Amino acid sequence: MKWEGRRQSKNVEDRRGMGNTGKVVAGGGLIGIILLLINIFGGEGAQNLTPILEQLNQQQQSSATPAQPLSEKDEKMGQFVSTVLADTEDVWHKIFEENGMTYKEPGMVLFRGSVQTECGGATSASGPFYCPADQKIYMDLDFFDELQTRFGAKGGDYAIAYVIAHEVGHHVQTLLGTSGKVRQLQQKLSKAEGNKLSVSLELQADFYAGLWTHYNSKYLEEGDIEEALSAAHAVGDDAIQKKMQGHVVPDSFTHGTSEQRVKWFGKGFKTGDIRQGDTFAALN
To answer: Which PANTHER family does UniProt cross-reference here (predicted)?
Structure first.
């Protein structure tokens, strides 16, 4: 992605160099992986982190992380994600204005280890997520190494851009009222039916990531789309379940299959039309 020397967002708060104290999962390991799988690309599912962590209290210990200076690589990564967020701001302002609405920009918090949000406490194991209560995206950038080494994505800067655009998609859903309607409906449905709505919500965020890429295509470089599609494929529910448990349980899907995620990102990218993103009708 062509990003160097361009505008960076003013809505990024970088906490990576700050120390933190508090409870973390003892030893990380398996519990961290489980939380990552539950909340990967978690959207509003990040709100479920707090009760899960509370249930694991007996396996937690108090830990302090000292402040650490940012490396040159850290600094460059911060500049990159700030540029990507700025690009999402430009695109979504344009789309909202074309439809007679005003876009409110989300914030982004970069952190290491653990973080406190209006949706509760979270650790790096949650993966990138969006908190609707404070309308901020939270990211531990070390996640992208996990995405490549543990889940088989190709890596590359556009895999990161895709994740950011997906989380911004959840912000768009909050602004449009889609997320709120889904939460209300889920309270009246069985778990299996509620999961179907969660899948639709996640696939629509993938569609919005593709839509953003369509509008932002002047900055694409060779291989960028392949990087995004590889990331989308790697985090499909079926791909994760096959890797972790050896079999697939469709009723437990909350984010969509690899094929669905790739399909909806591609549809957003190819059409460039926000009206084509009704993932809820498509799954009925």
So the answer is: INNER MEMBRANE PROTEIN, PUTATIVE MEMBRANE PROTEIN YPFJ
